[in-house]
Fold this sequence. Notes:
By secondary structure, the chain is of the alpha/beta class. The protein has seven helices and seven strands, in the order αβαβαβαβαβαβαβ. Strands 3-2-1-4-5-6-7 form a seven-stranded parallel β-sheet, sandwiched between helices.
Amino acid sequence: MQSENTVDHPTTLITGGATGIGAATVRRLLAAGHRVAVTGRDQDRLDRFAAELGAGRDVLLPLAADATDYDAVRGAVEATVKEFGRLDHVIANAGFSTHDNLADGDPGQWREMLMVNVLGPALLVKAALPALQESGGRIVLVGSTAGIKNTPGNMYSVTKTALTSLAENAHVLVTGSGVGVTLIAPGRVDTPFWSSHPDRVVPQGPVLTPDHIADAIVWALRQPAGVDVNTVVVRPLGQVH
C-alpha cells in the first residue's frame, strides 16, 4: 500500500529538462508536489536552472547524464532512487532536429539525432523499468506530430516515427506489469528547438507554448491507477498537420 508521502510526492525523472518543454514540465511537476530528477549533458546549466527555480535538493536533483549513454542513464536512475527512495515516472524529453532532409542533409548529424531521439528513450525505458514495475509507474515519451504525419524526406520525422513505434512497443511489453506508457505528440511549439533551424525563428502559423505540453504531460501522469492513456496529440488550433 502506498504511503501518504508517496501519493502526495511522487518521484519523476525527466531527460533534457533544463529548457523548453522540459523546463516547463519540471516547473509543473514541482508545483504538483513531485520530487524531480532532471538530466542533461551540462551540469553547470542544470545547476543554474535549479538555482533559478529556487528548489532545494530535497525536491530537485540535477544530474549530468548523456541520454545516449546507457551507463550514464542507468546511473541517473540509480541516483534518483537513492536520493528519493523510489521512482514513479520517467519522461523521455531530450531530443533535437537537424532541420534537413534526405536530399541535402548531413548524415553525420542524422546519426546523432537518431541516437538522441530514438536510442535515448529506449535506454531510459530499459534502465528505469525495474523501479517502475516496483512502483506501478508511468513512462512518457515526448514525440511529435512529425512522427504521425511525415513531410518530404524529413529525417526528424523518421526519428519521431520510430519513437511512436517505440511507445507502442513498450506498451505491449509492460502493460501486464502495471506500468503505463504514454506518447505525447506535440504540434508546433515555440521553444529553443527552433534555434537550430536555418531561419532561427518559429515558422509562421499557430503555435503552442511549452506550458501547453507540460500540462498534457502532467495530466497523463495524474491518471488514476488502472487507466493507461497511450497517445495524446496536441496541436495548436489551426495547425493542419
